[in-house]
């Protein structure tokens, strides 16, 4: 397959250097690619598509009875990360999760960091994600963020930046696992030659971490899902299957005397740990959103009594707010007395007058984000929008400055993809997964999201993004 | 096992069996029609009557033209019992509880769904001979059964699926017999003629029972066929066999020895089983075959309701996700 016409100008390409040389960790794959025919690559892509369909790897939602199931396109060309790069990422992510966990424990208890004025108290206490019922609580084993899926990007110089922390219910890990199975079949020999670190033990590690949260010798673990209409249902059921635990809905659970039971054909059975994939506010209609049809009445009382563990703990959402994000380097410094290993993207807080002024003046150069939105919604990409949109966002910011942050437009790195015109670069981000049990562990792999349209920077699956298998090399 | 999961597994069993039997129905009717003399019109109305959806059909369509009936029974999304509806529901149930299925079983159910979608796209009901399609669907479901048989652990979930499958099969065998009742012979004088004989033969073939019948009973006569399909102790599609096995499933689920009953579902099932066990074919014919089958179908529905009450909704706040019976 030829790579002529491959363009990598104005951003960092992960396979080619700016001089058009192949980077070391891509050599093996590049050799493979040079020998593989166009037809062969298309066949591999075709088989991958078929395998995804057969597995039912769908992500989208049902509306009533008419199924609208979408498949997240899996590009056959892997994204490769060298071991040296990975080591740094690993250390940086561990450091960050460690600090964020200490931060959560602190703000729900002593609030030292707020009293010391390192993070503005009103930013935390006034956040809708700061859950007052959690004040004074320490979750089992003192862990708040058990499962994290941090989003990173690489700028012009190839430097990694943290984009979002995703401490609530990060999804996508099933794609990392299933994509690997599919891609392994596409390159049986290459896998041996390259030395790719395995990810398939993730479900086992996840289960071990969940069991660790209970003091029982054989705790009963379940995955709590909002149900089949949730866009990530495939993942919920996949993880339950892989761990060999029950997949439960709210209606399957009942709380009696602060103990949580599952409704089974043999009567009630106690459940000890829930990997919950529903939002905080839907967990318990008695404590949080009374409208919630998904939750379990009384479950929060059971949690407070220590009779059920949740992963992640309720209340973590306050720490991945996009405004709090700006303070994470200071949070790391405060708790660990260390310099952050991984950088934040410089962030302007519209709540602060100086920053706001800068944002309003330079809106055409910035990316403006709502502090509480996800999935690429509520977002303005300055350089790619017209004056009308700029004005609309200026007004939105003025009306509700606390709700917005802005960041410089970053040029996401590109990696090779199989496109209609052969191999060409497409922009990507990186979402590795971190588990926090008896220790913090970064899974050596990731979900790489790719903007399939040439030049596009939007990688979200809901807006035309695809995915790639991510290879972390042993050497 | 979670009550909700048990319910989905049970209905997975029922819907798959329903789809398989519809494939058989259409096949048998197609074969029957080929044997009719040229001057007699094709009869597709009896098939619609036997499935119990005549009313729905008549609201939508006029007449009983073959392609129309075939579409109604196979692909019509408005017909909750069409093959496509059953397969879609089966897949939906499988998807909800896929963590309880082996990977292969789920993948076959998923493939089955796409097979039906492709059939719809290709308009197979308009083909001169669509039997290959029905054969494929039937084989896919049998493959799924085989896979499940070889890979699924014999724990509660297995018995709930079997239970659904066996009750559905008993119901559908009763309906196959009913097709024969509804098919009009050119005149009453044709009873016992070669034409009548051909009908019974086609019917036996539709349940893959022709050779077994021959070996066990020899001559083909109506009371022999009725006895074979309703009361035979060894043929796995006979109504008695299905009910006896379904009763065994209930006992495995409740973990009891197979004496007496532990709940209302076991009681009703046991009563039906013993009634069939101690019936002779003449008892049935004296009541009237069609009337007997009608009552039997109501009893099976009643048992299904009792299973729902005993296992799928014990708790007050459980929202029953009711699914439809034939």
Automatic annotation (TrEMBL), chain A:
InterPro entries: ATP-dep_Glu-Cys_Ligase-2 (IPR051680), CP_ATPgrasp_2 (IPR025841), UCP005522 (IPR016450). Residues 78-451 form the Circularly permuted ATP-grasp type domain. Pfam families: CP_ATPgrasp_2. Gene3D superfamilies: 3.30.1490.270, 3.40.50.11290. This is Uncharacterized conserved protein, circularly permuted ATPgrasp superfamily.
TrEMBL record, chain B:
Residues 1-312 form the DUF403 domain. Pfam families: Alpha-E. It comes from the Bacteria. This is Uncharacterized conserved protein, Alpha-E superfamily.
């Amino acid at each position: 397959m030829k790579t002529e016409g491959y363009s990598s100008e104005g951003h960092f390409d992960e396979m080619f250097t700016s001089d058009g040389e192949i980077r070391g960790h891509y050599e093996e794959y590049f050799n493979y690619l040079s020998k593989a025919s166009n037809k062969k690559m298309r066949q591999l892509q075709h088989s991958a598509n078929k395998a995804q369909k057969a597995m039912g790897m769908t992500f989208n939602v049902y509306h009533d009875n008419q199924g609208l199931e979408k498949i997240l396109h899996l590009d056959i060309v892997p994204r490769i990360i060298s071991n040296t790069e990975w080591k740094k990422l690993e250390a940086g992510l561990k450091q960050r999760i460690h600090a964020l966990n200490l931060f959560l424990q602190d703000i729900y208890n002593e609030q030292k960091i707020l009293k010391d004025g390192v993070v503005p108290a009103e930013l935390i206490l006034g956040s809708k994600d700061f859950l007052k019922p959690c004040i004074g609580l320490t979750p089992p084993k003192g862990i708040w963020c058990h499962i994290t899926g941090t989003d990173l990007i690489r700028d012009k110089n190839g430097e990694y930046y943290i984009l979002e922390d995703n401490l609530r219910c990060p999804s996508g890990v099933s794609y990392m696992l299933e994509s690997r199975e599919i891609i392994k079949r596409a390159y049986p020999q290459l896998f041996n030659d390259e030395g790719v670190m395995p990810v398939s033990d993730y479900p086992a590690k996840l289960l071990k971490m969940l069991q660790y949260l209970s003091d029982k010798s054989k705790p009963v673990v379940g995955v709590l899902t909002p149900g089949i209409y949730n866009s990530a249902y495939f993942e919920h059921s996949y993880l339950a299957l892989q761990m060999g635990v029950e997949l439960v809905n709210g209606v399957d659970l009942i709380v009696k005397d602060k103990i949580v039971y599952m409704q089974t054909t043999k009567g009630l059975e106690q459940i000890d740990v829930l990997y919950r994939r529903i939002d905080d506010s839907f967990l318990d209609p008695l404590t949080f959103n009374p409208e919630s049809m998904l939750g379990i009445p009384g479950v929060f009382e059971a949690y407070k009594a220590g009779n059920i563990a949740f992963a992640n703990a309720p209340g973590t959402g306050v720490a991945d707010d996009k405004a709090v994000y700006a303070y994470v380097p200071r949070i790391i410094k405060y708790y660990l007395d260390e310099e952050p290993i991984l950088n934040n993207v410089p962030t302007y807080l519209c709540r602060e007058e100086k920053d706001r002024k800068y944002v309003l003046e330079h809106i055409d150069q910035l990316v403006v984000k709502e502090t509480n939105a996800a999935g690429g919604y509520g977002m303005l990409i300055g350089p790619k929008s017209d004056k009308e949109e700029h004005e609309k966002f200026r007004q939105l910011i003025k009306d509700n400055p606390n709700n917005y942050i802005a960041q410089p437009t970053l040029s996401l790195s590109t990696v090779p993809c199989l496109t209609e015109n052969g191999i060409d670069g497409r922009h990507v981000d990186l979402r590795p997964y971190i588990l926090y049990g008896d220790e913090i562990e970064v899974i050596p792999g990731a979900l790489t999201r790719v903007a399939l349209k040439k030049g596009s920077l939007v990688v979200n699956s809901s807006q035309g993004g695809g995915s790639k298998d991510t290879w972390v090399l042993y050497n | 096992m979670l009550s909700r999961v048990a319910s989905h597994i049970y209905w997975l069993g029922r819907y798959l069996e329903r789809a398989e039997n519809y494939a058989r129905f259409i096949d048998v009717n197609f074969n029957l029609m080929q044997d009719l003399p040229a001057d007699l019109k094709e009869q597709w109305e009896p098939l619609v009557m036997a499935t119990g959806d005549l009313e729905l059909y008549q609201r939508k369509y006029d007449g009983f033209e073959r392609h129309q009936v075939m579409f109604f029974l196979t692909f019509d999304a408005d017909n909750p019992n069409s093959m496509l509806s059953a397969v879609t529901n089966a897949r939906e149930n499988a998807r909800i509880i896929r963590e309880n299925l082996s990977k292969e079983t789920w993948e076959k159910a998923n493939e089955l769904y796409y097979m039906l979608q492709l059939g719809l796209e290709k308009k197979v009901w308009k083909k001169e001979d669509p039997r290959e399609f029905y054969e494929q669907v039937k084989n896919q479901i049998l493959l799924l059964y085989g896979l499940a048989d070889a890979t699924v652990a014999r724990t509660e979930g297995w018995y709930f699926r079997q239970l659904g499958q066996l009750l559905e099969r008993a119901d559908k065998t009763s309906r196959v017999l009913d097709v024969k009742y509804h098919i009009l012979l050119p005149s009453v004088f044709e009873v016992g003629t070669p034409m009548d004989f051909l009908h019974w033969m086609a019917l036996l073939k539709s349940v893959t029972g022709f050779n077994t019948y021959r070996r066990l009973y020899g001559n083909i006569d109506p009371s022999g066929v009725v006895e074979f399909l309703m009361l035979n102790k060894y043929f796995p599609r006979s109504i008695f066999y299905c009910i006896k096995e379904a009763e065994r499933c209930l006992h495995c689920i409740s973990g009891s020895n197979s004496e007496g009953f532990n709940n209302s579902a076991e009681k009703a099932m046991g009563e039906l089983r013993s009634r069939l066990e101690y019936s002779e074919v003449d008892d049935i014919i004296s009541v009237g075959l069609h009337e007997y089958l009608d009552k039997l179908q109501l009893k099976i529905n009643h048992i299904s309701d009792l299973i729902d009450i005993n296992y799928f909704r014990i708790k007050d706040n459980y929202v029953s996700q009711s699914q439809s019976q034939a």
